[in-house]
């Protein structure tokens, strides 16, 4: 609550740190920054927050900052019943910002534990940073612009971080965020990918020397291993290290990227769904869900995701390309052409409009206009827009059935080590050349673990060995614990198979031989256990038995009563009476 923009940077930064601190508590699922900030300065009801974020509890508050005083007001609200559990006010000196962040985070965590039950909380959730407060305030200003995304905001953020490095050369966060900014611009096509990665590298190296244990450090290392070094094994290693440090939606998004590169689209859906669960208003998460549906040629389903991503962030460079493609490949050729013609420069370094129009002419068979646009695209092959130009020339030549020309472009892109190579593996436009030897050779070189071309595993159809049962059974138990698939009333055997990356028949045998259960028995056993834990909670006393059952994943009263009695040997009513008495 201040008219000063500098205080807005400070307040946003403090809020982000509290979100990150709470996310370190393993038992909590904390909505990420983008979606939390979506409600900033908006009048919304508890019901709207509950429905849009899928949360049971939310924290809200305000910060007033003056020269020598900071008043933080925090309150916790039950999103289901719309009532305040508590409210607290902290009057502190702004100079003690790190201690304040830790104090407020621990206070919230303790109050959550009192409300929702036992959770493990560390003695400290926010580590102090060894920089003067005025430097830290400047850093938060840089973070403010970095998180707004886009070319101009990112350049401004990098400039701020570079200034901070001059004043505080041992502050690792500034180096990591410069790396993040350049990597973002390279990956998004806001500058040539090679240039972005090259500029980012020394800053990451220095950040690593100063602090290798920041999750963003590991995530940035992961991006470099994938998009610059084409080493997916190491990319996964760093991504998983980042996940161990702090589960964040951008890490799940990243792993979804890598699974897509390998052609494992069903598994990629699982990870992007987790990212969306943590940050449902993240434009990139929403865009990527649409992108996966586009890759599976489900254009009608994909289109609303691209449109929503663009509505959340109008300067996001990717959605306009795929909005046009969804129209084009739904046989709405003229509508797609009109859409691309109506774009007024997606970003300063983007060829979306030119490339989109060229694809439309190719698909519509207007060869003369298409060739004219192709010559224009080719003029960019010696410019900083080379990677974008190659991408569109590959797509257009396949649409024109000029397969040799398309393969020549792919080979040149491969020679230049352009990241677009990793995205060709699953591009639906390239289906006509996917089985050509020249194409397969390049894809296997770039992506050794390529799901489209590697030989498929042979699975036993009759019996599993004891080792196989133990290995896959342990993996399944871990998946059920971490992802709680049983809470989805529509979960299927195919969903389990997707998470395990095994054939459905194989998983059916695993349940039968490893758990002595069919799929329904297996899933509903978890649901019954979930019900037993939920129904005795103080917060659920006002709910009916069936309301708790539905919250536990059941979608049928008959199924619930039947399974409960079968597993527990008594009715839900009897169980509840007995346990509430105890």
Overview of the structural elements:
- The structure is a single chain.
- Helices cover 63% and strands 5% of the residues.
- With 582 residues, it is mainly α.
- It folds into four domains: 5-116, Rossmann fold; 148-211, Serine Threonine Protein Phosphatase 5, Tetratricopeptide repeat, CATH 1.25.40; 239-446, Tetratricopeptide repeat domain (Serine Threonine Protein Phosphatase 5, Tetratricopeptide repeat), CATH 1.25.40; 466-580, Homeodomain-like (Arc Repressor Mutant, subunit A), CATH 1.10.10.
- The protein has a three-stranded antiparallel sheet with strand order 1-2-3, sandwiched between helices.
- Helix 8 runs antiparallel to helix 9, helix 9 (215-228) packs antiparallel against helix 10 (232-245) and helix 20 (403-415) packs parallel to helix 21.
Radius of gyration: 26 Å
Helix/sheet category:
mainly alpha
Largest sheet: 3 strands, antiparallel
The fold-level CATH name of the largest domain is: Serine Threonine Protein Phosphatase 5, Tetratricopeptide repeat
Strand content: under 5%
Q: Which regions are unreliable across 5 or more consecutive residues at pLDDT < 50?
A: 455-462
> What's the CATH H-level homologous superfamily of the largest domain?
Tetratricopeptide repeat domain
Strand tally: 3
Percentage of residues assigned to helices: 55-70%
Average pLDDT: 85
Query: What general outline do the C-alpha atoms trace?
Result: globular
Domain module count: 4
CATH class of the largest domain: Mainly Alpha
What's the number of helices? 28
CATH architecture of the largest domain: Alpha Horseshoe
> Span from first to last CA?
49 Å
């Amino acid at each position: 609550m201040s008219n000063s923009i500098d205080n807005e940077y400070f307040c946003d930064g403090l809020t982000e740190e509290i979100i990150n601190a709470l996310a370190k508590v393993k038992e909590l699922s904390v909505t990420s920054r983008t979606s939390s900030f979506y409600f900033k300065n908006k009048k919304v009801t508890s019901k709207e927050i509950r429905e849009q974020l899928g949360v049971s509890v939310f924290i809200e508050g305000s910060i007033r900052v003056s020269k020598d005083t900071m008043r933080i007001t925090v309150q916790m609200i039950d999103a289901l019943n719309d009532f305040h559990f508590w409210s607290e006010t902290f009057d502190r000196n702004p100079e003690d910002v790190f201690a304040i962040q830790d104090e407020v985070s621990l206070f919230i965590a303790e109050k959550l534990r009192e409300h929702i039950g036992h959770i493990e909380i560390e003695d400290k959730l926010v580590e102090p940073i060894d920089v003067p407060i005025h430097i830290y305030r400047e850093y938060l200003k840089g973070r403010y612009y970095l998180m707004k995304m886009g070319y101009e905001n990112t350049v401004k953020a990098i400039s701020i971080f570079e200034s901070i490095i001059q004043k505080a050369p041992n502050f690792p966060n500034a180096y990591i965020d410069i790396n993040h900014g350049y990597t973002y611009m390279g990956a998004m096509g806001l500058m040539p990918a090679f240039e972005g990665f090259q500029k980012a590298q020394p800053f990451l190296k220095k950040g690593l020397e100063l602090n290798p244990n920041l999750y963003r450090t590991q995530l940035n290392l992961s991006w470099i291993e994938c998009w610059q070094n084409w080493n997916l094994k190491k990319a996964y290693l760093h991504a998983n290290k980042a996940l161990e440090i702090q589960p964040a939606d951008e890490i799940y998004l990243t792993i979804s990227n890598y699974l897509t590169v390998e052609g494992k689209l069903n598994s990629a859906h699982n990870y992007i769904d987790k990212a969306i669960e943590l940050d449902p208003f993240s434009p990139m998460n929403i865009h990527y869900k649409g992108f996966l549906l586009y890759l599976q040629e489900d254009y009608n389903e994909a289109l609303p995701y691209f449109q929503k991503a663009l509505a959340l962030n109008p300067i996001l460079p990717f959605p306009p390309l795929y909005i046009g493609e969804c129209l084009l490949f739904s046989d709405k050729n003229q509508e797609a052409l009109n859409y691309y013609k109506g774009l007024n420069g997606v970003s300063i370094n983007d060829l979306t409009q030119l490339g989109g129009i060229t694809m439309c002419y190719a698909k519509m068979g207007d060869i003369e206009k298409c060739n004219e646009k192709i010559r224009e695209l080719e003029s960019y092959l010696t410019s900083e827009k080379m990677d974008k130009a190659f991408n569109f020339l590959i797509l257009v030549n396949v649409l024109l059935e000029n397969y040799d020309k398309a393969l020549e472009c792919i080979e040149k892109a491969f020679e230049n080590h352009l990241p677009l190579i990793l995205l060709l593996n699953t591009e639906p436009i390239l289906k006509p050349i996917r089985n050509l030897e020249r194409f397969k050779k390049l894809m296997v070189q770039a992506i050794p673990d390529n799901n489209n071309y590697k030989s498929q595993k042979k699975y036993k159809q009759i019996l599993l060995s004891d080792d196989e049962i133990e290995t896959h059974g342990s993996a399944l138990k871990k998946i059920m614990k971490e992802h709680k698939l049983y809470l989805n009333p529509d979960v299927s055997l195919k969903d389990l198979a997707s998470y395990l990356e095994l054939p459905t028949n194989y998983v059916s045998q695993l349940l039968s031989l490893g758990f002595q259960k069919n799929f329904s028995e297996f899933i509903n056993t978890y649901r019954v256990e979930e019900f037993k834990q939920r129904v005795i909670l103080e917060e659920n006393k006002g709910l009916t038995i069936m309301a708790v059952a539905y919250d536990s994943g059941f979608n049928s009263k008959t199924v619930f009563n039947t399974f409960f009695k079968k597993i527990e040997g008594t009715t839900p009513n009897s169980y509840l009476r007995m346990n509430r008495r105890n």
